[in-house]
């Protein structure tokens, strides 16, 4: 495979076991047959990963900053965007029904120091939305209101690195079994269809609204 690859449109399928030094994707559909590995500095701002696993072992920047009419990089059904190196989410990532974003044990994922970042459904009408954000490594949340519409599982660490008042908003439930550290941060759980909301601060105090608990454990 090429050491450098730029994809701006159309459809491209890459074979299993391939390695790319640098991938710059601003459009189009990228399909991986099995696992394709990125080893250098790569950027995924627009377009989609339509199938297979794209494994970052270098430095990855992913997510559109909102300048386009339909912002965000799309992780398609059954596709896995996996970070084993250093990754920065700087805007919006959109999931189809069953896409997965995974941060491996020992890897670092940074939620950029900007106004907002989010992991959302590519189609708001999808009632069977079952995407997953799986954090097994180090997740650093900057000065942002970071919203996760998919299920969120974290067995790794979550560190708040921003200023007081920012939040991690979990809309899809999940399990947090790892550590939560940092000063002045909060994370909120909102369940869209149950009319319930709980806000937890880092000391474990809770404020409840609504009649039913969201599906979150930590």
Give a quick set of tags describing it.
218 residues, mainly beta, 25-stranded mixed β-sheet, 25 strands, globular
Q: Can you put this structure into words, describing what you see?
A:
This protein has a 25-stranded mixed β-sheet that branches. The chain has strands at residues 4-7, 11-14, 19-20, 22-38, 41-56, 59-62, 73-75, 80-83, 86-89, 92-95, 100-103, 108-111, 116-121, 132-135, 138-141, 145-148, 151-154, 157-160, 167-170, 174-176, 179-181, 186-191, 196-201, 206-210, 216-217. It has one domain (4-217). It contains no helices and 25 strands. It is globular, with a radius of gyration of 17 Å.
- Count the beta strands: 25
Helical amount = under 10%
Number of domains: 1
Average pLDDT works out at 78
Shape: globular
**Helix/strand order:** EEEEEEEEEEEEEEEEEEEEEEEEE
Strand content: over 45%
Structural class, please?
A: mainly beta
Q: How many helix segments?
A: 0
Topology:
Layout: E1 4-7, E2 11-14, E3 19-20, E4 22-38, E5 41-56, E6 59-62, E7 73-75, E8 80-83, E9 86-89, E10 92-95, E11 100-103, E12 108-111, E13 116-121, E14 132-135, E15 138-141, E16 145-148, E17 151-154, E18 157-160, E19 167-170, E20 174-176, E21 179-181, E22 186-191, E23 196-201, E24 206-210, E25 216-217
Parallel strand pairs: 1-4, 2-4, 3-4, 4-5, 5-6, 5-7, 5-8, 6-9, 7-10, 8-11, 9-12, 10-13, 11-14, 12-15, 13-16, 14-17, 15-18, 16-19, 17-20, 18-21, 19-22, 20-25
Antiparallel strand pairs: 22-23, 23-24
